[in-house]
Fold each of these.
Amino acid sequence: MKPIKVEDIKGDSAYEVIQRAWLGHKIEGLLPEHRAILERWQDVDRLYRRGEVGEMSSDGKNRLTKRFTWRSIVEWLVERHGISVRQAYEDVANSKRFFLFADGRTDVEYARGAALEHGRMMQWAAFDAGKFEAAAMFFKECNQVEGLHEHGAEVPDYADFQPPSLLVVADPSELGFEKIENVDEVVQRILNEKRNGFIEAEAEDVEELPADE
C-alpha cells in the first residue's frame, strides 16, 4: 500500500478535510466541528486498542469496565458525546478507515498491531505476577504475530512495477526497415511467384505416362 500524500486528497468532505489536516500536521487549524469528529474517531481507536470500555456505575461513584464490543463502543460514544446511535456507528466506520484497521481480513496490519499491544501487556502482567511459563507463552505468541520467525524471500515491490509500453505501427519503415513505395504491386508479385512455384512443383511431381502404342 502506497503512502497517502496531502496532495492526493482532492475532495472537501469532512473526512477528506480532516485527513488533509492530519497528514499536513495542521490539526490546530481545523474547524471546531471537524475537531469534534476527529476526537470521536480517536476515542474509537483508543478504546479498540485498550480492549475495554470504561463507564460509571449507577451511583456515579465507582468506575466500571466492560470488555470490548462494537456495541459497547457505540453506547459509550452516544453517552460521552451526545450523538445518535447512527452517528456513532458512522464514527466507528470512519475511525476504522482513518486509522486503517478492521475486524476480518481487511487492513490486517492495524489489527496485528492491536493484538501485539494486548499480548505484550498480558505478557508483562504474567511476568510481574511471577507466572513465568505463561509469560513465555505470551512472548512466543507475540513474536509469532509479529512475524519474527518468518524468513520470507526478497520479492520486488509490484506496486512500483511499470509494464513496458508496446508500439504498434503499420509502416515497417518506422522501425528502420526499407520503405516500400508500391506495396500492392510487391504483394501481388510475391503471390504470383508463390502461385507459379506451386504449379511448377506440381508439374514436376506428375508421373509421366507412356505414349499409346
Amino acid sequence: MNLKIDIAAGLLISLTVVGGLVPSLRAGDEKHGSAVAAPVADSPGPVAPALCIAAGDMLDVNVFDTPELSSRLRVDSNGDITLPVGGDLHVAGKTAKEAGTAIEEILQSQEILKNPLVSVFISEYATQGASVLGEVKVPGVYPVLGAHGLLEFISVAGGVTATAGKDVSITHRSDPNHPLLIRLDNARDLASRANAQILPGDIIIISRSGIVYVLGDLLRPGGFLIENNNRLTVAQAVALAMGTNRTASLDHCRLIRRTTQGRTETRVRLKRILSGKDPDVEVEDGDILFVPSSFGKAMAYRGIDAAVTMTQSVVAFSAASSL
C-alpha cells in the first residue's frame, strides 16, 4: 500500500516539475530564436521599400568618434554631396545605409580613417508630403509626419467619393516602376492588407468605378456602380434597381450610349431578355437604360435629351447625398 502511495506521489512530483519547466523552456526557446512552435500572428500588411535619397534631401552624416568629419549636407540637383574630406559622392538612388557604407569606403580608401563607422540619416526630404489623388473628396498633398498607413491618408483626404472603385495604387518614390495595388473590399484581412506604410513622395491613386444609370418606371431608379473587372448586363442593372413596376413597358426600353460620334439610342426588348428569348445585353460605363411606362409613353420618354436631363438630376442628387 505504501509502495503505491509513494509511486503516485513520485509521479505527481514529476508532473509538477515537468509542468513548471515546460513554460520556462518555451520562453527560453522563443527568446533565443529556436524552432519551438509559437502562436502565429496575423500577417503584416504591405511594407514600403526603404526610401532612397533624392535631390534636395538633407542628410545628417555622423562619423563615429570623429565629429570634425561629421556634417549636415544637402543633396544637390545632380544627386551628389560634397564631403568635408573626401570629395564628391553620388548618393541619389541609395538608401541611407548604402550611403553610409559608400562614405566609409571613401574614408578608408583615401587613408583618412583606418576603420571608419559612418551613419547617415535623412533628416529632411525634398518632398515632405504624399499625394492622394483620384476618387477622394479632397485630393491633394498631405504631410507625412511619422508612420502612417494607407487608410489614414484616405481618411485625411475626406474619404472616398460615391463613384470610387475598390482598387488603390501606391507608387513609392523609391520604386516608381512597380506600383503596389491594393483592393479595398470587405474581406477580413483588409486591415492588414491596407496597412501599407506611406512615405514622403509617395502617390496614392483611388480608382474610379464605372456607373450605369437605370431610369424610368422602376422600383428604385438611380445610378449603379460597375467595378472595373466586373461585367454588368441589362437584366442585372434592372435587378439593381429592384425591378420594374407593373406599369412598365418592357418592350420599349432604350439603351443610350455615348460614343465618339455622339450619343446613340438602341431599343431593348427587356421582356424577351427576361424570358430568355433574346440574349442579355452588356452595359458599359456611362450608359443610360430607360424603362418607360406603358401609360402615356410619349410623355414618359421624349428622346435622348430627356434621358440625359434625368441622368443629370440623379448625379446631382447622388453628389448631394455623399456630402
